[in-house]
Design brief:
The chain has helices at 16-29, 68-81, 124-133, 146-152; strands at 3-11, 33-37, 41-43, 55-64, 97-103, 108-109, 114-115, 138-139, 144-145. By secondary structure, it is α+β, with helices and mostly antiparallel strands. It has one domain: 7,8-Dihydro-6-hydroxymethylpterin-pyrophosphokinase HPPK (Alpha-Beta Plaits, 2-Layer Sandwich). Strands 1, 2, 3, 4 and 5 form a five-stranded antiparallel β-sheet that branches. Strands 6-7 form a two-stranded antiparallel sheet. A two-stranded antiparallel sheet has the order 8-9. Helix 3 (124-133) crosses helix 4 (146-152). The chain is globular. It starts with a strand and ends with a helix.
Length: 153
């Protein structure tokens, strides 16, 4: 069964645009179908140390047939292959960060995953790119469309 998913991409080190494109190719190679990526948005760092370089953010949607845990493992592998250390701090500079924002209409709460992603609906740098490519996707925990959340932000 194909599950429509939404990912947030972020990075502020190296060739971020090239890294995003390569991540999309690697997701396709891992089995994701019908991938669409938003335009890239440059954003000021939020809750980061002074002097942290601006981030580039994008959203990516696609269809996935495996579990959320398997998608999470693929995303972590792509992050590591892009130069991000497996052990890393929160809100630190990075070559690539991939967060699972939505996984169909599922609400998942485990030790490793919180879907919908915690705080995603409060972050313009997540919602604005996602609204470009999936304005009608719904956050199952609130029942709100991405486009409606964007209006609130």
């Amino acid at each position: 069964m194909m599950i429509k998913i939404a990912l947030a991409l972020g990075g502020n080190l190296g060739d971020v645009a090239g890294t995003f494109k390569l991540a999309a190719q690697k997701l396709a190679a891992a089995g994701m179908k019908n991938i669409k990526i938003s335009s890239f948005h440059r954003t000021v760092p939020v809750s980061c140390a002074p002097g942290t370089p601006d981030f580039m953010n994008a959203a990516l949607i696609g269809e996935w047939t495996d579990t959320a845990d398997e998608l999470f493992a693929v995303c972590q592998k792509i992050e590591r292959e892009s130069g991000r250390a497996a052990a890393h701090g929160i809100n630190t500079p990075r070559t690539l960060d991939i967060d699972i924002i939505l996984f169909g209409d599922r609400i998942i709460k485990s030790d490793s995953l919180m879907i919908p992603h915690l705080r995603a609906a409060q972050r313009l740098f997540v919602i604005a790119p996602l609204a470009e490519i999936a304005p009608d996707m719904i956050f199952p925990d609130t029942g709100r469309k991405v486009s409606d959340i964007l209006k609130l932000l």
